[in-house]
Amino acid sequence: MYRDQKVFDLIAQEKKRQMEGIELIASENFTSPQVMEAMGSVLTNKYAEGLPGKRYYGGCEVVDEVENLAIQRACELFGATWANVQPHSGAQANSAVMLALLNPGDKILGFDLSHGGHLTHGSTVNFSGKLYQPFFYGVDKETGLIDYDQMEETARKEKPKLIICGASAYSRDWDYSRFRSVADEIGAILLADISHPSGLIARGLLNDPLEFCHIITTTTHKTLRGPRGGMILMREDFENPFGIKTPKGTTKKMTQLLDGGVFPGTQGGPLEHVIAAKAVAYGEALTDEYFNYIVQVEKNAKAMADAFVEKGYDIISGGTDNHLMLIDLRSKGLTGKEAENGLVNADITINKNMVPFDDKSPFVTSGMRVGTAAVTTRGMKEDDMKKIVGFIDEVLTNVEDEEKVGKIKKDINEWMSGFELYV
Ligand code: PLP
Q1: Which reaction does it catalyse (predicted)?
Q2: Prediction pTM value
């Protein structure tokens, strides 16, 4: 039988890369073997357009049970009453919400991409900035914290239909109640995209966005440690506030609109194998073992931030409340691109990142973003964070010295063999 050795050799190479290096990309993690087992299952063969109990295909009895399990566990995990677990990704979840609620040309207000926001929150290169009219809030130049006054001012002036909170590179907690107050004042819907800190939120380590935000979107593969994917949640359903009518002239509940935004709005058949893997990951996230893990993620991030500060690095906002931090490298005379390339040569993976008020392009940048979700899954503790920062500092002060960086890489590979995973 034909065996695609080429692809499996590449997968083996990638596994070796992941195991030998230090993974600090804040949006990455290592799923459990059972999450991968569910993803690599026969469920990939099944078409199941629609929702459990209301499918457009026969033979969906089993996948209905799987999807219902994922929905129930998602609701239990976040204290939600409704979930759609079908979005193929975080970007898909956001596109489904916008398609469900907005008309082309409607105003939206999101966190500026160059201050730590996400492309799907109104960037002009993304559907969200092309189809809708985007406005932005950002951080205060001095403190690096969200400028809530500016956000409220812009919201009152522009009266967007949708306000989005949440970020890709913001290390502090959010005051969701302040967003909700202004959303109520101007009659806007409030969406929290909790893709990054969803694991910390699920287990009560950060403010609860479901208490204040009408709709929640999240990816499932970052701190939540599930398969790559997305999800939409609500705690309370209500009649759509914008008078959106169905073809029959009736109005719909928000959850119906959102379900329609996913399918048939922006997707076809759901990936039931990925939904099964989401169910497994949500089940894991409800355990004490995961709670201990996510507490350690937060402790490790604080330890890492302290270690960077001790070595004279400039962390935006001065520290972290969650799993990540954004470091301004200008005081070290390096660009994000130089740091990323230098660190990759030592098998440390980070990503270059714009810092607020950056004067460099997104391809160069003045900063780097690091996170502790993946290294914590490898079993690391606070002391290991100090050691990692030591390695990073050694590489960044010797980026031009190939021999020295090569030696650090060897030390890292040897050290990482003590943090086994997937054996
Ligand atoms: N929203 C936020 C805040 C993100 O950080 C990301 C990904 O990094 C996304 C959405 C998009 O997720 P995906 O890459 O799964 O489309």
Answers
A1: (6R)-5,10-methylene-5,6,7,8-tetrahydrofolate + glycine + H2O = (6S)-5,6,7,8-tetrahydrofolate + L-serine
A2: 0.97
